[in-house]
Batch of 3 targets.
Target 1
Amino acid sequence: MDNWKDTLVSPGLRIREVLAIIDRNSQQIAIVADDDGKLLGTVTDGDIRRGILHGIPLDSPVTRIMNAHPVTIPKLNDRKSVVEILKANKVRHLPVIDEERHVVGVERLDGLLTGFQSRCWVVIMAGGLGRRLEPLTDDCPKPMLRVGEKPVLQTIVEQFVRQGFTRFCISVNYRSKQITDYFGDGCRFGAEIHYLSEPKRMGTAGSLSLFPFETGEPVIVINGDILTRLNFGQLVEFHQNHQAEATIAVTTYDYQVPYGVVKANRDRLVGFEEKPVYASFINAGIYVLNPEALKEVPKDSYFDMNSLFETLLQRKAPVCIFPVREYWIDIGGMKSYRRACKDYDSEFRQSAEAAEYAGTPAQP
């Protein structure tokens, strides 16, 4: 329950402010309390993502998304009992309150369970040509371009390893030897790495037909040009809690109309809106797929990820979307590559150094 007071927030704060507090502290929860310290509700990462999916603006009061009736516990000294209560209620955080509902602590499942290691496989799509980044990719595969003095692909692998994911398959094609020589079997990165060698161009999903392992766990798939601070453990947990066969991570893209928009009701003028901004969800290039979904990928064929999801929707499989609220960038062209290079120190170097200092993987 260390530093639990850092999680306390007032009901007058905006969602955006609470989001910054959750990201800053290590508790992954915010406790909404009144001036006397009495519990009003809780806000977790999942509450914020659900708010985003429902279109609730981040400038709204935090009370719009908080859980006003969270499960709570009294202060207990028996660690095993706390873990059992957390698991029984299928939650990762519990406010600790006294008899008058004053908050006196927070119990976290991640803090009670040490040595987390996921059994999920991670497939990284790293076989693309990277034509939009020529001439940088004339002699170098795009995932091996350096951002922050290391290849993009290395940052992706290290992000997963710090969160307890250590089993990888990397799909390779263009200048694959540079990737296989650099990463080898993954041992020096604290990982187990295998390679899916594409015999030809197979699209964004085709190489999944080469996945050689039997597994009962969901498989995470990520494009090899994505840098993000997404908590992959939360992504998998969301996928499993929603009993999805496939989940696609999405991020918000804002588009501003460069003109004044005329509002009309049939042939009647209603008003004007000057250069409005519209927000849409776009594909973030990160997926979670159950083994059943992998079977939909045809053998030895060119197949895109969109086609896979369309196939799943046609047979009415449960497919979910998961909003990415953390830092995310698709290094598809020169502009985004330069931005990633600029962002690296602030977004990735500090977390990498902190994890190295701690000597243990960050918990999801």
Target 2
Amino acid sequence: MRSLAHKINWGRVAVHIIAYLAGLVWIIPFMGILMASIRPQRELIHGWWNLETVTLSLENFANAWSHPTAPIGAGLKNSLIVTIPATILPLIIATLAAYGLLRIKFRGRHAILFGIVLLLSIPQQMVAVPLFQLLLDFDILNKYSGLIITHTAWGLIWITIFMRNYLTTLPVEVEESASLDGASRFQIFRKIVLPLSIPGLASVAALQFTWVWNDFFMALITLYDPDKLVATQRIPLLKGQYSVDWGVLSAASLLVTAIPLLIFVVLQKYYIKGLIGWTSK
């Protein structure tokens, strides 16, 4: 018995206990939202954990999807219209910029990189008024293109830094060998760098998609047509004037959360590799 006690790694046990407790703290409010979305409101008066009477139904999801004031189904479609191009465009542009800043030697590239790092410190609230005026001057206010351009410009900053750090982990000898064989810089980038960068690209895509999808502030500035509102703008509109249907509100929240969660599950393998790739150099 004494030898068995010496074999127990108490540090690992403590880490597991802390991890399980953290997971429990996170899952309790989620269970509350889930129960509120699949049970009638009369059964939740004494708490969602009260299981004396349990009636399961998807009626709240149906009501949230086709809500007369702010249907979440239309909001999800609008969010996809904005989020997909606002993820792909900065990913392409920033990866090209990161590769150029890392591999191409030119005067002023360190100053450009320093300026990009400084831009990371600018909060969104600081640019709200000039952004509104700029979109108005270019006649793209209250248009999806205006919000897509806004998220693209905002994402270019951090994606460039992220991808530059990731590209530093790739073997430069492979690129030099391809260059000696006559490959152009763009061919090297397309046929060698991009395939090797899939974990980093997947990590960036998952993060950018999630941040754009969950955005409320920028959408609030750029879109105000009721038919064009994205999903995050519609959730507050589900509250009634005199009462709140928590079942519909909870169901709508789960519907909006499901899309980025699905993206993370699909890209999870590459996401983890991309996050630890350049930090473990």
Target 3
Amino acid sequence: MTTRLYIPRETTASSLGAEMLVEAISTEAKYRNLPIEIVRNGSRGACFLEPLIEVETFTGRVGYGPVQLEDIPDLFDANFLTGGQHRLALGSVDALPWFKQQERLTFARCGLIAATSVAEYTKLGGFAGLRAALALSGADVVKTVLDSGLRGRGGAAFPTGIKWKTVLDAEADQKYIVCNADEGDSGTFADRMIMEGDPLSLIEGMIIAGIAVGATKGYVYLRSEYPLTQQILDEAIANAAAAGYLGSNVAGSGKAFDLEIRMGAGAYICGEETSLLESLEGKRGQIRFKPPLPALKGLFGKPTIVNNVITLATVPVIFEKGAKHYASFGRGRSLGTLPFQLGGNVKAGGLIEKAFGLTLRQLIEQFGGGTASGKPLRAVQVGGPLGAYFPESLLDTPLDYEDFAKAGGMLGHGGVVVFDTSVNLAKMARFSMEFCSVESCGKCTPCRIGSVRGMETIDRIVAAKNEQERERQHLVLKDLCETMESASLCAMGGLTPMPVMSAVKHFKEDFD
């Protein structure tokens, strides 16, 4: 009897040796005359367990990890193909507390199936949302998204349904759906994980968006640093087209929708929607003035929905389970779930999908298991390189959009980076300004020049010979940050002051 093994074809697992494991296990099984089938699934999201191998047994899937090349002979000797005991044995991965405490909606299939298989995707509820959407009018599809409370998961948290309704109501001979997959924030990997582990959910979400507003063409703008993601997405798009879900007759509905990938060139600023559109049109990635909004005059001057990967990949869940079901998760105006990406100095980093409302402390302690170094936690940055630095005293802040904003931070794309007591926040604040100066598109003066002056001012603060000079430079930095925040054309310059001033506010001793 042939035994099925699941070994991730995913960037994190691959960087830790998954590809070599596939070859070694195949060779060892052939030598021992044991028939096996290796399925290339996505990652479950527990980065600290990668490479994670799961074996299909009579009692269910049994996990082993993290597996190294030298472990292979021992695993075979321990009869791991039948779920045998071994020091790396994890039992049922679903039963591990790290997974049991999660509420996986968007990532429900991630790591469970062969990533690009239409058959396996459909077996676990895939395209059920599309079928439900095809039975509705465009206006009713948009209303369902509105009723779900889904907000943009790329960072801005703008209500998705409102953006869709604007495009639906716009008169045009052509409309577009654009997926912003230019995931460039430090400590974030949710977009990549869903594209490598369940890419058909993104494809289905884009099809539903197209049908809702009358768009027949979609583009995925993918960051250049994701070559494996591109391969997997290409396969998934080809498989979806072959199965009749893309093309001139989507699922036999008579409606058309085509999809293709466009690769970015490594510019952080192209994560901003108008810069992304400029780049898609073959121009230099620079901010556009708003208005007009992309929803009215976007790609090639046509009405365009621009949503990020997680937003679009969540749409099928809403139509499969119902808007009310999705809205039953979360609290206040922050409804549904968010895939938090926990990294930095933690023992158990990875992707944790939870409903809005748990605290930052719960996320770090229940899932992260404390710092990897064993030193006390000192700071946490949430929301990417432009997010605020929170001290230990703010760890009980609930993780939702409104409460986090009240505390002086932002959730952004859900990246959470932990630092221990060895961190110097003056250096981190300077890095924020340096990052802005390097990645600025250069169109507006506050961002282009302000970031350079910010680095110089922080250097003067740290080098100050007396308290009077130091305080004078602190006032200059505060004034500079206020100018960048209020006068920059986009969030690049407008948000750079957030990590800088939060570092000054909570960790001023590092600047002395």
